[in-house]
Amino acid sequence: MLNKKISVVVPCYNEEGNIEELARRLRDVLVRNLRDYELIFIDNKSTDATRDILRRLAENDPHVIALFFSRNFGHSQYGFTAGSEYATGDAVIWTDADLQDPPEVIEEFIKKWQERYDIVYGVRAKRRGGLFLRIAYKFFYRVYKKVSYLDIPLDAGDFSLMDRKVINIINAMPERDRYVRGLRAWAGFRAIGVPYVREERREGKTSNNIRKNIWWAKKAIFSFSYTPLEFIFYLSLVVFIASIIAIFSYLIAYIINPGPRGFTTLLMVILFLGSSQLLALSIIAEYIGRIFEEVKGRPKYVIEEIVGGKTGKYHQ
After folding, report:
1. Inter-residue contact 22 to 10 (CB < 8 Å)
2. N or C: less crowded end of the chain, CB within 10 Å?
3. Do 124 and 238 share a domain, yes or no?
């Protein structure tokens, strides 16, 4: 048994059907492997019975801590952030509450940590679900790795174990608009992946859909890539060269065959230039929006109540 303490951070939103089973399976794994542990659940203002279940778990088990946000802060990244800032373990594990990431994989995480790896992340070697989504996820991770200025591991989500020194670095990062798996990669350190099969959600309805997945893809790319801005430059260069070629082509055509030219050609040019400008503006707007969030300097989250726990502290 390892003479260390691990904190498990679990963001929750409307997970009443999963929390108790998740807590049971986490306990089974951690008790077999560790001297001490803590389970930190962060509720993002659930509208079902999630808060009542978490309150009961925290009151009956000294290893369980429940942090209740004052409102819904939008996505799990703030849950991972709050839990990591509150955690007191020698290492911290991030996992979702829907049981898609099997808690039993944590045993392998701990073994790799003992081999002196600072970051151990789950690699989704296979995932349950529809063919379209599986292909889309595979495609996105490969595009993201290409365009990012970080060395992003393929098919790796938030599910991971990080040593205390890594968590301290992530906690010290001041940005409000957070993409935590990107921050994990930015921190560096010795890392290794553990392949596993990602299951389908056990209970409840996922909040993810095509629109939300596109939103996540944009967040990842615009947070850790300058490629969209470089794309604007190359697009402008192509448009400029095409314009020069078009001007000379029209001059030659007019010399050979004087007379008025078609309205359709003019319309196509206007539409192409207009759409290029809108595309460039939309890319710039994504970066400006992130700057806007950062300069306001508001707290990343607000905790309304903390239930349970023997020790610990949190920082906003």
Report:
1. yes
2. N
3. no
